[in-house]
Each structure stands twice: as C-alpha cells, then as structure tokens.
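Quick one: structure for this chain?
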Amino acid sequence: MVELYQAFGSLDTRKLSPFYSKASDVVIYNDVGPVKLRGWKEYRRSEQEIMSRVSWWVTKAKDLRVKVWGNIALSTATPTLTGDSKAGKHYDNVVFRHTAVWEKKRGHWQIIHDHWSIPLPSPKPKS
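Got it. Here's what it folds into:
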C-alpha cells in the first residue's frame, strides 16, 4: 500500500499499472468523476486526466490495515494528500478513505476492486 501511494505521487499511470488487475470486470469507485470505472484501461484514462491537472502531490498512508484470506486480501486506510493543482489550488493533508480488494496471482498481489472517497463535511446544526 505504501508503494501504491508512492506510485500515485509519480503522476505516471505506468507506475500504477503493476498494482491493478487487467481483468475487464474490475470495478473502481473513484473520489472524482466518473464515479464508477470498469477495468484498468478506463481507470488509467481517468487517472491520466486527473494527473494532467496536477503539478505535484504526495499521498501518505494512515491507519493502514490489511486482512488476508488465502489469495484474497482486504486493505483499508485513511491516507492524506498534499499537493498543488496546475490551476494554483493547494491541497494540504486532505483525508481520503481507501478500501481495496487484492488477489494474489502467480505470486503477485493486484487490486481487483478499489474504492476511494472523500468524507463529506459534517452538517451544521440548525439554529
């Protein structure tokens, strides 16, 4: 997971590729649109578009947990993102939720389902 987050910081989807299954039925829920992506090719295109708007970013693993059942694993984390967009917006320790399902094939773990989300702000109390 730490290596996955470092790969995101490279702003190069080729470095993300080893972490994701290439099966067409993989479903990824992203934190930005489109919300649902099917397969690595669709996800890669979406991430390239997002990364094209970023000057730099660093994603740090927080609260990382992994549970393994044979050749299937579940990982959860609340990583933070810090960086700048090319439009000049700065992001400082934005907290995400990240859940991934991994499958081990030929000795290598790959993501077969990925879910990223940003917590909504707490509602303000009514006066």
